[in-house]
Amino acid sequence: MNFNLNSVTAISAILLIVTSCSQKSNSLTEEDRTEITQAHKAATDPVEADPGHVDWKAFIERHYSKDAVLLPSNSPEIVGSDAIFAFMSGWPPVKKFKVEDVEMKGTKELAYIKVSYNIIMMINDTTEVTETGRDIELWKKYDDGKWRCFLDIWNSDMPSK
User: Fold this and answer.
1) Partner residues linked to 139 by β-bridges
2) Start-end of H helices in 30-117
3) Is the CB of residue 112 less than 8 Å from the CB of residue 104?
4) From residue 10, how far is each of 24, 95, 96 by CA, in Å?
5) What are the backbone dihedrals phi and psi of residue 110, each rounded to the nearest 5 degrees, phi first?
6) Maximum Cα interatomic distance, the chain, rounded to a whole number of Å
7) Which of 65, 81, 148, 160 has a CA-to-CA distance to 35 between 20 and 30 Å?
């Protein structure tokens, strides 16, 4: 198995969160859970409501830190909000975008959200491509008190071709 620096960082962050969750005094509070959920919904709800007119710049600003890293399926890593915008704005038009939070755990400083997703994209006027999968998002509470996703890893349920 080949690991790069971001893979090691992701694994280290997940291990830190999992081991820290056992320390009750450092656990994620209900207030933090609410703030993360609200931040996540502020980014995803507009996309779900009107997937044909996605403002990827607004989505990225609401969701990601400026130095966030994406580790998408079948793609090299994408680093930073400008690169994330270039990557997402290059997607085909979205017909359906649905995410569902499955699990959230963390500490006062770091958390993860496990998400399931279903996306339908239009390759041309008549061809739809559906993708379902799972996503792990690592969130951090920044100095301004806001929670933002700094590492996003998703895996398609669809077989690779």
Assistant:
1) 111, 149
2) 30-49, 56-63, 81-89
3) yes
4) 23, 31, 29
5) -135, 145
6) 54
7) 81
Neighbours of 6 (CB within 10 A): 15
- Rounded to the nearest angstrom, the gap between the alpha carbon of residue 126 and the centroid of all alpha carbons in its chain is 29
CA 134, CA 72: separation in Å to the nearest integer?
11
Q: Record the tokens describing residue 131, joined without a space.
A: 């993708």
How many residues are there in the chain?
161
**pLDDT per residue rounded down to tens, the chain (161 residues):** 444 555 556 655 665 555 555 555 688 999 999 999 999 999 999 999 998 899 999 999 999 999 999 999 888 999 999 999 999 998 888 999 999 888 999 999 999 999 999 999 998 888 998 999 999 999 999 999 999 999 999 988 887 76
Non-local (6+) Cβ contacts of 158 within 8 A are: 130, 131, 132, 133
Task: Return d(Cα 147, Cα 143) in angstroms, integer.
Answer: 9
Q: Cα–Cα distance between 27 and 37 in angstroms, integer?
A: 16
The label of the residue with tokens 């779900």 reads 48
Beta bridge partners of 98: 118
Query: Which domains are delineated in the chain?
Result: 5-156 (3.10.450.50)
